[in-house]
Amino acid sequence: MKKKFKRILIINPYGIGDVLFTTPVIRNLKEEFPDARIAYICNSRVRPFLRQDKFLDEVIAFEKEEMVKILKRSKIDFFKKGWAFISSIRKKRFDLVIDYSLNFQFSMFTVFAGIKTRIGLDRKRRSRFLTKRIPLEGFSDKHVVDYYLSVLELIGIQPKRFPLELNMRKEDLDAASDILRMKGINPGKDFCVAICPGGGQSWGEQADRKHWPAVKFAELADQIIKELGVKVMIFAGLKEDSIGNKVSNFMKEKALNFSGKTSLVEFLSLLSKCKLLIANDGGPLHIAAALGLNVVSIFGPVDEKVYGPYPDQAKHLVIKKDISCRPCYKNFRLADCLHDKECLISISIEEVFDKVKTFYKDKG
User: Keywords on this record (predicted)?
Assistant: First the structure.
């Protein structure tokens, strides 16, 4: 007989794209255990949008980097803070944890937290403290979401492939509309295109390996404005604002440049007012997919079948070059590039513009 769980904890300490990949898991759990209380441990950056998830009862922020800083300063303070956090979780009496951290410390934490059923993915035996686990070399032959969903089979659930979900508060959406009106845009009427020329922070110094050239984004934006007569917005996070500013500076036409000027919630709200997103591989394309936007995504070293828009459907168009060395990001490792980013450089502005026109609808 399938066990019924009453208090469920999900752990994923990573970025917004990765956390969005778990939203179909959350919905499956709520459908299977409608009376269960479901909580989620994440980092503080993604907490604002997870708190709007209608299937979650609690969102708990945990900053691993903060704990590392405390450890460097004082081992005593580290153990005090760590045990206080563990104790707070123990008091909640979870009977199931699903750990997507692929992290030794988190899998050990679930034991100290007193959770009896502990399931997840296991890479290099880092999740050895889980009671049931699926060995993982890397994400390679199917989408990451499907890997995450497969963990549910360990407790007898045959998962459904629900789409990614992202819920927004009405007051945040209204605030975004007000911002756009002040900029001369009618959110309900104007056809707005968002451009995200960055690729996220997860690759650190090698992040530019995922970037289609800024000058091409600029020329594409100019062409979109001139030929289609639409409004263009440029978005980039605080640590990537220089990329967004480059695109804006290279442009001849006028676009709204929000690079480095919005909070996560403001970005989500403004993006939701757009009809189309053009982006490199990264979190924004998954946000757009979850919001129901049309997406034109540009993929270089990463396999779009694994990390691309989910689920694959008519609203998502991927542009990539099938060259022999691609994809070169496999099993969490990025190979050295010996071809000067040919997989991205060789993608022309016209190729991307043709995809954009597929989604454009003249409302005149």
Answer: Glycosyltransferase, Transferase
Q: Which CATH class is domain 170-359?
A: alpha beta
In angstroms, the CA 321 to CA 142 distance is: 19
Q: Are 300 and 326 in contact (CB under 8 A)?
A: yes
Q: How many angstroms separate the CA atoms of 65 and 25, rounded? A: 26
Q: What pTM, to 2 d.p., does this model score?
A: 0.91
Main-chain phi, psi angles of 292, to 5 degrees: 85, 15
CA distances, 147 to each of 40, 89, 287, 303 (Å): 18, 26, 19, 15
CB 258 within 8 A of CB 234: yes
* Mean pLDDT for the stretch of residues 119-130: 90
Q: Are 28 and 55 in contact (CB under 8 A)?
A: no
Q: List the one residue out of 259, 205, 227 whose CA is nearest residue 354.
A: 227
Q: How far is CA 308 from CA 17, 293, 304, 311, in A?
A: 10, 14, 4, 9
Residue 309: closest CA among 151, 139, 144: 144
The confidence score (pLDDT) of residue 251 equals 98
Q: pLDDT value at position 144? A: 96
Distance CA 312, CA 317 (A): 9
Q: Do domains 7-155 and 170-359 have the same CATH topology?
A: yes
- Dihedral over alpha carbons 154, 159, 165, 169 (to 10 degrees): -80
Measure the CA–CA gap between 356 and 289, rounded to whole angstroms: 15
Q: What is the pLDDT of residue 169?
A: 92
How buried is 357 (Cβ within 10 angstroms: 0-12 exposed, 13-18 middle, 19+ buried)?
A: exposed
How buried is 127 (Cβ within 10 angstroms: 0-12 exposed, 13-18 middle, 19+ buried)? Answer: buried
7-155 is classed CATH 3.40.50.2000: yes
Give the strands of the sheet with 117-122, arranged side by side: 58-61, 37-42, 7-11, 96-99, 117-122, 132-135
Q: Where are the domains of the chain?
A: 7-155, 170-359
What is the Cα 91 distance to its own chain's centre? Answer: 30
Rounded Cα–Cα distance for residues 197 and 235 (Å): 8
Which of 125, 122, 127, 124 has the alpha carbon at shortest distance from 111? 127
